[in-house]
Amino acid sequence: MNASPPPPIECRSLLVLGGARSGKSRYALALAEQGARERLYLATGSAGDEEMAVRIARHKAERGAGWTTLEEPVALCAALEAQALAERVVLVDCLTLWLANAMFAAADLAQEVKKLCTTIARLNGPVIFVSNEVGAGIVPETKLGREFRDWQGRLNQDVARACDGVVLVAAGLPTLLKPSSEPQFALR
Predict the structure, then answer these.
(1) How is the chain split into domains, by residue range?
(2) How many Cα atoms are found within 13 Å in the side-chain-facing hemisphere of 156?
(3) How far is CA 181 from the centre of its chain?
(4) Which pLDDT value is given to residue 9?
(5) pLDDT at position 139, please?
(6) Does the pLDDT of residue 188 top 80, yes or no?
(7) Which of 12, 26, 59, 154 is catalytic?
């Protein structure tokens, strides 16, 4: 007997996780385009070199009409508070670059992550966050790489708790992680 599909989940805040080139950004873009006429792409990357400038230009072209772009590599919370409106969906792509920017700016990462999670709860409009799941790979060779991986894992966990929904994308296929029913074990 086939079970009927679950009803759609209403989320004001959603975290979309996945590995590099997993399809997470494409999924988040498509989801945002379904939900609102007004869409803001809040980019946390900046063109530090020519390759990144070309990549940013390509992504802007791929988004096409109907998107406004705001680049904010560090002051993410202030940008969200100013830009998250009831009639607009904000897509933050991505938390991984934001974290790297905060690290290189010598920010207090624990404070910044806490501030972001507090901000999520107060936003006036829907927001989709994209972030890399970096902990499934090899252990980084350098101390800085290991520190970044650890902070990224903490950030993803904290933002997942703060958001209404979490989706993991692998090979272009989304899997709903939150909300989900937890297994109940019958202990005898």
Answers:
(1) 13-178
(2) 25
(3) 22
(4) 61
(5) 87
(6) no
(7) 59
59 noted as active-site residue: yes
CB contact set of 160 (below 8 Å; sequence gap of 6+)? 15, 17, 166, 177, 178
The fold for domain 13-178 equals Rossmann fold (3.40.50)
**Residues 6 or more apart from 31 whose CB is under 8 A from it?**
14, 16, 128
Q: Is 50 exceeded by the pLDDT of residue 70?
A: yes
In 10 A of CB 136, how many CB atoms? 8
Per-residue pLDDT tens digits for 120-177: 999 999 999 999 999 887 888 999 999 999 999 999 999 999 999 999 999 999 999 9
